[in-house]
Amino acid sequence: DLAYAIKETIARNGIKTKKVIFTVASGKIINREVTIPAVKEAQISSVIQANLGEYFPVSLADYEVTQSLVQTITEGADAGKHRVLVFAAEKSMIDSYRKLASACGLDMLNVYCSGASIIEAARGQRFDGCQAIIKIEEKYSIISVFKNGVLMLQRSINYGVGDAMSTALDPFQSEYGRLQLKNGVPKRVAK
Fold it and tell me: 93 with 26: CB under 8 angstroms?
């Protein structure tokens, strides 16, 4: 099973930590970027919780909410304010990852969506000028645009490698018979 495979991989690679953060690619995670007033970083979560109704005009009874600090603004009229990405994920999905972590003997710290993981991975990098990071999944892609190391824009689009493969294979269908993608791999189908 999956828990056994994860435990075996951890042991085989000599990984000693028991703390885990899962990165999830899912359309079931909703997010919003918000700008909040100048508060201490330890108070960001409280400010987010107090204003959830403004960020997500839906019932969040079945969701868990987390956030990721994008930037503390240092110049201009908004100096001191914080740009924060707020994420809401279905509790049932988060619970399934908690159970998986427990079955693996791990302590789950958090579940990030792919977009937040990109921000965290880029946080320690130094970008000069404008840079784009594009993460392509099977069914969708995430485009993150940074300017001098600060996230300026992040969007998910419903176009992934599976769509690209289908588009690329389309011209070959008449000459070579009909091709279909099975788990991302082109397979010939009878004419």
Answer: yes
